[in-house]
Design brief:
Low-confidence stretches: none
Number of strands: 24
Function: DNA polymerase involved in damage-induced mutagenesis and translesion synthesis (TLS). It is not the major replicative DNA polymerase.
Keywords: Cytoplasm, DNA damage, DNA repair, DNA replication, DNA-directed DNA polymerase, Nucleotidyltransferase, Transferase
Pfam families: DNA_pol3_alpha (PF07733), DNA_pol3_finger (PF17657), HHH_6 (PF14579), PHP (PF02811), tRNA_anti-codon (PF01336)
Shape: globular
Mean pLDDT: 88
Subcellular location: Cytoplasm
Catalytic activity: DNA(n) + a 2'-deoxyribonucleoside 5'-triphosphate = DNA(n+1) + diphosphate
Strand order of the largest sheet: 1-2-3-4-5-6-7
Length: 1022
C-alpha cells in the first residue's frame, strides 16, 4: 500500500500533554502525505470540532477517537468507525467524566456493557494476554494490538514481543505513534508541560518525561525503518473503515413544549396572537401585524418554531417568578420576540430588520441572548435543568487559553525559578496580554533579558501562549436537545455543583449545528428591579421597562451633560467624554452612543467623521449611490457590524453565505486568523466597482476592529433601552436608583463609595448605618425634600454576614432595642459581629461614638442558666474621648468602604493648596492649554486596546472627578507611581474640547503617604 495513517495522536486539548494544535498537526500530516490522522485526546472530544475544520482545510481525513485508561484494566485507543461508534464513544466519555470531579475521569469495565457497535479499539502497552478475553467479548472483530516504537534501546525486543503476543492471541497488530507534537522542535515545550502537569520542576520530573523527541509526526521513510510494512499497511485498512464525519450529526430541538391538539407552528402562532393582544390591548398596529406575519412565515419555512418556544418557556418562568429579564442582540430585531416577552424593544418603532436575526439565505438557527438579574440567574439555570433533565440539557464550555501572565508563571515554575522571581515575571505581563514580557519591562523589574535561562523561559512562554489550559463553563449558554446530549457530544461535570457542561466551546457550536440559548446575567437588571421595588414601596407607583416615559427631555439633557455615573453602558470614562460631543436627543442617538465608543469604529477612523457630520461641520455624502441605503441612518459612516456585512454584499457582490463567512471570520480572526482572503476579495471587487483604495483600507481596519470587539446594531439597540431606563431613573428617582445600585454591588463601573459620593453631590441625604433603623439592604426613608433619604444597610459593613443582619431585623420588629446588651442577646450576636457593628458606628444611636460602643460590647456576656432572669449588675457609665475627624474617616473607609463625613481630600485641601494643587471645582475656571497641578484619589485606571498604550486615569476629590491622560512614554517611565499610587498628584496641562476637560499628564507624584493608611480601592484595567 505504501502509505500511513496515524491512529494515536494527542493535540493540545489533552491539557498539559499535547504540545501542538490540531492545525499544526494537520498541516504537517498533509506535508508528509499521511492518508488520515486520528485525534485521540485523553478521554475528551473537546478539540474535535477544531480538528474537523483543520482536516477539511488540509484535505487530510480525520479519524475521531480518544485515548482512555480503564481503571484496573488496559489502556485503549478508541476510534469511531461510524455514527453508532461515535455515539458509543460519547457515552463512554460522559460516564467516565460524570463519575469524577472536574478535570478527571474514572472509566470502569462496567461502562463497556452498553452496545459498542461501530467502535474500534487498539490495545496499547500490552504486557500479557490476561485482558484479552474481556476485550474480545466487548470488541470481537474490532480489536487490534498497538505497536509503538520510538527508537528506544529495546525497540527490536519490544517489537518481537508484541508480534509474538499478537500471534498468540490471533490479533492483528498495527503501528501507532503515540504522537504528542507535530514536530521534534516542540520537545522542550512538551517536557515543560509534563512538569507543569505533575506540579514539579523539569529537573525533578524525569520519571514523567519521554526519553527522546520521537513522539512527533514522522516521515514514512523513518517509520519504515522501525515497523514491518504489514503494520504500516494495517493503519490504512483501519483508516478506510473509519468513515464517520461530524457533519453526520443530526441535532433536533426539544418538542415537548407543544400541548396536545397543536403542532409547533400552531402553538407558536397561538402564543404570538396572545402576546400581540398583551402588547397592543387596543388593536395591533397594521405595521406590527404585517411584521408578525412575515416573521411567522419565515420561522415556519425554516422550522425553527421549537427554538422560539424554548426561549419563551424560559422567559415565562422568569416572569412568573418576578425575575427581570431582557432579550438582546439579534432578538431585538424580532416582533415575535417582542410579543412573546423575550425583549422589551419594539422593532416596529425602530429601523432594524428581521433578516439580521433570521434569514433563509443564511439557513442557520437564530441566536437569542436573554439577560436575567445576576443574583437570580441560577434559579433560571436550575429550571432549565429540571425542565429537560440532565441528559438533555447542559451548559456549553469555554476553552480557557494561556495568556502571557499565566504562561510565564507556569513555565518559570517548571524551569525552577524561585517563587519571588516567578511572581515578578508574571507582574511584568499585562492582565490579558498575549505576549511575553518586553525587555524594557524585564529590566525595570530587575531581570537581565539576556540571561540564558530567562530567554528559555520567554521562548517557551511564547509557544505556550494561546494553548488551551482547561475547560470552564460558559456564563449561561445552554444547549438543549430532543435526545440525550451524549449522543452528540460528551458531557462532564462543571466545577459548580448541580451543573454539567458539554465538551465543546461556544464558538464551535454553529459549525456542528447545535442550538444554544444564552441565559446570561446582567447586574443592571438586578439594580433596575430593585429600583422599581423601592419606588413602589415609597411612592406606590410601579414602573416597568415598558412603561417608563419615552423621549424625556430632562433625561436626555442629563445624558448630554455626561452626568451618568452609575448609568448602564454610558458610565465609562470614554463614554462620558463622548456624551457632550454627541449630545443624544433621541433613542436612536443613544443607540449610536452605546456603539460608537468601540474598537471597530475607533480603529476604522469612523468616530470623528460621524461627529463632524452630525454637527454640520462637513457634508453628509456616501461612497456610492448603492451604499446610501446602507449608511444613511449613520450619516454615511459605517458604525455597525451589520453595515459592514451589507457593504460586502452591495459593494463587493458577496452572497449572503459569503457575508456570513465574513462575520464568522471577524469574530475569530484574533484567535485563528482567516481575514486575509476577505481582504483580497473585498479589495479587488470594490476596486473593480470604482471604490478608492483609501476607502477599502479604512473599511478593512474597521473589520479588524469588529474582530476585537464586534458590536452589532441590534445589541446596541437592546443596551440603549437599558441605558435610557437607568438614566431616566437616575434623573427622576436618584435616591432610589443610587440605593438600588449599592444593593446590587458588585456590578458596574463604580464602587458604592463613588455612587454615594455622587448622590450626595446631587443633594441626596445619606444616613449612616444604625441598628435601630438599618436593614440588610440600603433603604429609603422620608426626608424634608422631594427625594427620600438613603439609609445605609448592614451589608455595607465589611465582614458582616447576611444571616446576622436578618436576626437584627427580626429582633427589632419584635421590640425596639433598649441597649447594646439587649441587641446582642436578642439577635444572638457573637463578639466578632458586635465588634464589627461598634467599629462601623452602627451602635452610635444606642450608646454613643465608636469608642463608647466598643467598650459597651466588650462587657456583654450571655447569662448562664443558673442566673437566668436575674438582671445583670449595672456598671457606672464611663466617658471615653471621642475619635477625631481623621480617625473617624480612616475607620469609616476601613469598615464601610465609604464615609458620610468630609471627603478625604477635604481634610488635605490646605496641604494640597500649599502645593498649588487645584481641585476639580477650580479647574472649571482654568483656560485651555494652561499648566496646572491637581491631586486626587485614584479610582480607576484604564488602557483600551485602541489607545496605543495610553493610560486613562480617573481621580476623585471632594468636588467630583478629574480625567487624566497619561501618554505611553510617561506611563513606561513612571510605571510604579502610576500603578501603585492611591493618592496621586499630576502636573500637566489642561485640554478642553467641546466642553470635555482632560488633564494631559507631564509628571506623576505619589502622595499616598498623606493618606496614613486610608483603605481606598481603585478599579484598574477592566
Amino acid at each position: 500500500m505504501n502509505g500511513y495513517a496515524e491512529l494515536h495522536c494527542l493535540s493540545n486539548f489533552s491539557f498539559q500533554r499535547g504540545a501542538s494544535s490540531a492545525q499544526e498537526l494537520f498541516e504537517r500530516a498533509a506535508r508528509l502525505g499521511y492518508r488520515a490522522l486520528a485525534i485521540t485526546d485523553e478521554c475528551t472530544l473537546a478539540g474535535i470540532v477544531r480538528a474537523w475544520q483543520a482536516a477539511k482545510k488540509q484535505d487530510v481525513a480525520l479519524i475521531v477517537g480518544s485515548e482512555v485508561l480503564i481503571e484496573g484494566g488496559p489502556k485503549l485507543v478508541l476510534l469511531a468507525e461510524n455514527l453508532a461508534g461515535y455515539q458509543a464513544l460519547c457515552g463512554l466519555i460522559t460516564r467516565a467524566r460524570r463519575r469524577a470531579a472536574k478535570g478527571t475521569y474514572r472509566l470502569l469495565r462496567e461502562d463497556f456493557e452498553a452496545p459498542l457497535d461501530g467502535l474500534l479499539a487498539i490495545w496499547l502497552e500490552a504486557q500479557d494476554a490476561q485482558p484479552l478475553p474481556w476485550l474480545r467479548s466487548r470488541f470481537r472483530e474490532r480489536l487490534w494490538l498497538g505497536v509503538e516504537l520510538h527508537r528506544g534501546a529495546d525497540d527490536n525486543a519490544r517489537l518481537q514481543r508484541l508480534l509474538d503476543l499478537a500471534q498468540a492471541c490471533a490479533l492483528p497488530a498495527v503501528a501507532c505513534g503515540d504522537v504528542h507534537m507535530h514536530a521534534r522542535g516542540r520537545r522542550a515545550l512538551q517536557d515543560c508541560m509534563s512538569a507543569i502537569r505533575q506540579h514539579l520542576p523539569v529537573a525533578d520530573a524525569g520519571a514523567y518525561l519521554f526519553a527522546n523527541g520521537e513522539r512527533h509526526l514522522r516521515r514514512y521513510e523513518e517509520l519504515a525503518e522501525l515497523y514491518p510494512g504489514a503494520l504500516l499497511d494495517e493503519t490504512l485498512r483501519i483508516a478506510e473503515r473509519c468513515r464517520f464525519d461530524l457533519g453526520q450529526l443530526q441535532y433536533r430541538y426539544p418538542r415537548e413544549l407543544v400541548p396536545a391538539g397543536h403542532d409547533a407552528t400552531s402553538w407558536l402562532r397561538h402564543l404570538v396572537e396572545r402576546g400581540a393582544c398583551w402588547r397592543w390591548p387596543q388593536a395591533v398596529p397594521e405595521r406590527a401585524r404585517a411584521q408578525l406575519e412575515h416573521e411567522l412565515s419565515l420561522i415556519a419555512e425554516l422550522q425553527y418554531e421549537s427554538y422560539f418556544l424554548t426561549v419563551h418557556d424560559i422567559v415565562q418562568f422568569a416572569r412568573e417568578h418576578s425575575i427581570l429579564c431582557q432579550g438582546r442582540g439579534s432578538a431585538a430585531n424580532s416582533a415575535v420576540c417582542f410579543v412573546l416577552g423575550i425583549t422589551e424593544l419594539d422593532p416596529t418603532c425602530n429601523r432594524l430588520l428581521f433578516e439580521r436575526f433570521l434569514s433563509r439565505e443564511r439557513n442557520e438557527p437564530p441566536d437569542i441572548d436573554v439577560d436575567f438579574e445576576h443574583e437570580r440567574r441560577e434559579e433560571v439555570i436550575q429550571y432549565v435543568f429540571r425542565r429537560y433533565g440532565r441528559t438533555r440539557a447542559a451548559l456549553t464550555a469555554v476553552v480557557n487559553t494561556y495568556h502571557g501572565a499565566g504562561a510565564v508563571r507556569d513555565v518559570a515554575k517548571a524551569l525552577g525559578l524561585p517563587p519571588d522571581q516567578v511572581n515578578a515575571l508574571a507582574d511584568c505581563c499585562g492582565r490579558w496580554s498575549n505576549d511575553p514580557p518586553s525587555a524594557e519591562r524585564l529590566q525595570e523589574a530587575g531581570f537581565d533579558p539576556h540571561n540564558p535561562l530567562l530567554r528559555r523561559v520567554l521562548v517557551l512562554t511564547g509557544e505556550l501562549i494561546g494553548f488551551p489550559r482547561h475547560l470552564s463553563q460558559h456564563p449561561g449558554g445552554f444547549v438543549v436537545s430532543e435526545h440525550a446530549l451524549d449522543t452528540l457530544v460528551p458531557v462532564e461535570n462543571a466545577s459548580m455543583a448541580e451543573r454539567t457542561v458539554i465538551q465543546w466551546d461556544k464558538d464551535d457550536l454553529d459549525l456542528v449545528g447545535l442550538l444554544k440559548v444564552d441565559v446570561l446575567a446582567l447586574g443592571m437588571l438586578s439594580a433596575l428591579r430593585r429600583c422599581f421595588a423601592l419606588i413602589e414601596r415609597y411612592r406606590g407607583k410601579l414602573w416597568t421597562l415598558a412603561t417608563l416615559p419615552a423621549n424625556d427631555p430632562a433625561t436626555y439633557a442629563m445624558i448630554s451633560r455626561a452626568d451618568t455615573i452609575g448609568a448602564f453602558q454610558i458610565e465609562s470614562r470614554a463614554q462620558m467624554a463622548m456624551l457632550p460631543r454627541l449630545r443624544p436627543q433621541t433613542f436612536y442617538d443613544l443607540v449610536i452612543q452605546v456603539a460608537i465608543v468601540r474598537p471597530g469604529p475607533i480603529q476604522g477612523d469612523m468616530v470623528h467623521p460621524y461627529l463632524r457630520r452630525r454637527n454640520g461641520e462637513e457634508p453628509v455624502d456616501f461612497p456610492s449611490a448603492e451604499l446610501k441605503p446602507v449608511f444613511e441612518r449613520t450619516l454615511g459612516v459605517p458604525l455597525f457590524q451589520e453595515q459592514v456585512m451589507e457593504l460586502a454584499i452591495v459593494a463587493a457582490d458577496y452572497t449572503p453565505g459569503e457575508a456570513d463567512e465574513l462575520r464568522r471570520s471577524m469574530a475569530a480572526w484574533k484567535r485563528h486568523g482567516g481575514l486575509e482572503p476577505h481582504r483580497q476579495r473585498l479589495t479587488s471587487r470594490m476596486l473593480e466597482k470604482g471604490y478608492t483604495v483609501a476607502f477599502t483600507e479604512r473599511i478593512f481596519r474597521q473589520i479588524e476592529g469588529f474582530g476585537s470587539y464586534g458590536f452589532p446594531e441590534s445589541h446596541a439597540a437592546s443596551f440603549a433601552l437599558l441605558a435610557y431606563a437607568s438614566c431616566w431613573l437616575k434623573c427622576h428617582e436618584p435616591a432610589a436608583y443610587a440605593c438600588a445600585l449599592v444593593n446590587s454591588w458588585p456590578m458596574g463601573f463604580y464602587s458604592p463609595d463613588q455612587i454615594l459620593q455622587d448622590a450626595r453631590r446631587h443633594g441626596i441625604q445619606v444616613r449612616p448605618v444604625d441598628v435601630r433603623h438599618s436593614d440588610w439592604d440600603c433603604s429609603l426613608e422620608a426626608s424634608d425634600g422631594t427625594q427620600p433619604a438613603i439609609r445605609l444597610g448592614l451589608r455595607m459593613i465589611r465582614g458582616m454576614r447576611e444571616e446576622e443582619a436578618r436576626r437584627i431585623e427580626t429582633a427589632r420588629q419584635a421590640a425596639a432595642f433598649s441597649g447594646v446588651e439587649d441587641l446582642c442577646l436578642r439577635a444572638r450576636l457573637d463578639a466578632s459581629a458586635s465588634e464589627r457593628l461598634a467599629d462601623a458606628g452602627a451602635l452610635s444611636g444606642l450608646v454613643g461614638h465608636r469608642y463608647q460602643a466598643r467598650w459597651a460590647v466588650a462587657g456583654v456576656e450571655e447569662q448562664l442558666p443558673l442566673f437566668a432572669g436575674i438582671a445583670a449588675p449595672q456598671e457606672s457609665a464611663l466617658s471615653l474621648p471621642e475619635p477625631t475627624e481623621g480617625e473617624n474617616l480612616l475607620t469609616d473607609y476601613d469598615t464601610l468602604g465609604t464615609t458620610l463625613g468630609p471627603h478625604p481630600l477635604a481634610l488635605l485641601r490646605e496641604t494640597l493648596r500649599a502645593e498649588r494643587c487645584k481641585s476639580s471645582h477650580d479647574l472649571q475656571a482654568v483656560e485651555h492649554g494652561r499648566a496646572v497641578s491637581v491631586a486626587g484619589l485614584v479610582i480607576g485606571r484604564q488602557r483600551p486596546q485602541t489607545a496605543s498604550g495610553v493610560i486613562f486615569v480617573t481621580l476623585e476629590d471632594e468636588f467630583g472627578m478629574i480625567n487624566v491622560v497619561v501618554w505611553h512614554d510617561l506611563a513606561e517611565r513612571q510605571r510604579r507611581v502610576l500603578v501603585q499610587s492611591q493618592l496621586l498628584r499630576i502636573d500637566g496641562h489642561l485640554e478642553t474640547v467641546d466642553g470635555v476637560r482632560h488633564l494631559i499628564a507631564g509628571r506623576l507624584i505619589d502622595l499616598t503617604q498623606l493618606l496614613t493608611g486610608l483603605d481606598i480601592r481603585s478599579r484598574d484595567f477592566r
